[in-house]
Specification:
Length: 214
Amino acid sequence: MTRIAVLGGTGYAGGHIVDAALTKGLDVVSYSRSAPDAPREGVEYRQADVTDAGVAAQIAADVDVIVSTLAPRGDMLGAVRPATAQLATAAAAAGTRLGVVGGAGSLFVAEGGQKVIDTDGFPDEVKPEAREAEAVLEDLRAADEALDWFFLSPAAGFGSYAPGEATGTYRMGGDVLLTDDDGNSFISGADFGLAVIDEVVSPAHRRARFTVAS
């Protein structure tokens, strides 16, 4: 049985990833700074500071796959990049796969076009978070070949403000934002969680970024 650690497992993205992991029969450990409001049966919950190098090493040695949903916002702004670097080092040493959930800001609006973060109308208050997530991706791309990683950017419309419904399906792309015929880019929390766990169970993106949308 695959054992997976979800960092930020009590948050929006992390919670949906935990739920999807349970439906696939995985052994799930959730790490967060606070206890869950509504614990899922069958999940091992641990409270820890995953930005600590010692904790990162312990996590990597304990599981087959780490999925980080750490978001560089609030007091975590500026902390996610070095924390992910520590996780990458620990994962490479332990032979553990590392998955990172990033934002849509570093996706391109079209092949050869500008990035979403550089388009008119991208909120200024979100740019620091998006820039740090972009830097995390750049670090992973430059990492030693010993590290098996994937980076998943959700559609532009993804978050607790628009949870959507579970459809059990999603479209997959590479470095270009996925939109529908009306130009909308969206994925529900449940379908995003499914996409992450599908990649865990059946790896298709080794050392690569991909994106998903409804």
